[in-house]
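thread: overnight batch results

M.L. [08:02]
morning all. the overnight job finished for the chain we discussed friday. pasting input first so we're all looking at the same thing
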Amino acid sequence: MVFHVLSWILDQEPADYVVSDTVLVTPSGGELLTTTDRTPITKED
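M.L. [08:03]
and the structure it wrote out:
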């Protein structure tokens, strides 16, 4: 079984943000299939 999990961060300026993960559920537990880097991207003014 596979779940797609969305975590929303609302009311942030200039936009809202979402982090999504795909998780494979097996009899031995869950396995995160998402390989996206979680390091925030920042921009200097």
